[in-house]
């Protein structure tokens, strides 16, 4: 299987797993925004691992999945891992989901009840990915909130 096919397959498995969660566990939860659906955005390889944003009716997370041949099953669920991205070091939590196994998530936005539509949500995810994938002298808070002090931090 070529590298692009493998990456596409991993992203499809991620989306399918969270579509199941949406249908089976979150459909009746008030926290879920009915105007939104599960969507993987901007996935690419980062240090050989699938990395991108996952939109759902209840969150926007950055997602890092194990690379080909990597086994993360030994990582304790809910444990914390720090990953150095071009814009800085970010805290990810180890998660597990049926159909995809172990992955890591960094929360960007939750809840998402004020997001009006999927297109707007996708634009927020794309902006977040651009922000963390580009070297920056700004703090993580400034990058994520768009609020900078007089010195640009």
Automatic annotation (TrEMBL):
<protein>
    <submittedName>
        <fullName>HupJ, contains rubredoxin domain protein</fullName>
    </submittedName>
</protein>
<dbReference type="Pfam" id="PF11939">
    <property type="entry name" value="NiFe-hyd_HybE"/>
</dbReference>
<dbReference type="InterPro" id="IPR023994">
    <property type="entry name" value="NiFe-hyd_HybE"/>
</dbReference>
<comment type="similarity">
    <text>Belongs to the HupJ family.</text>
</comment>
<dbReference type="InterPro" id="IPR038530">
    <property type="entry name" value="NiFe-hyd_HybE_sf"/>
</dbReference>
């Amino acid at each position: 299987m070529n590298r692009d096919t493998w990456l596409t397959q991993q992203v499809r498995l991620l989306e399918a797993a969270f579509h199941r969660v949406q249908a089976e566990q979150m459909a009746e939860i008030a926290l879920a925004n009915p105007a939104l659906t599960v969507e993987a955005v901007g996935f690419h390889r980062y240090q050989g691992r699938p990395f991108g944003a996952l939109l759902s009716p209840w969150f926007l997370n950055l997602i890092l999945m194990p690379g080909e041949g990597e086994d993360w099953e030994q990582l304790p669920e809910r444990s914390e891992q720090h990953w150095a991205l071009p814009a800085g070091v970010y805290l990810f939590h180890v998660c597990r989901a049926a159909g995809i196994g172990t992955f890591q998530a960094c929360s960007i936005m939750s809840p998402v009840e004020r997001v009006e539509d999927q297109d707007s949500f996708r634009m927020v995810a794309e902006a977040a990915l651009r922000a963390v994938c580009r070297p920056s002298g700004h703090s993580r808070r400034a990058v994520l909130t768009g609020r900078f002090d007089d010195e640009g931090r």
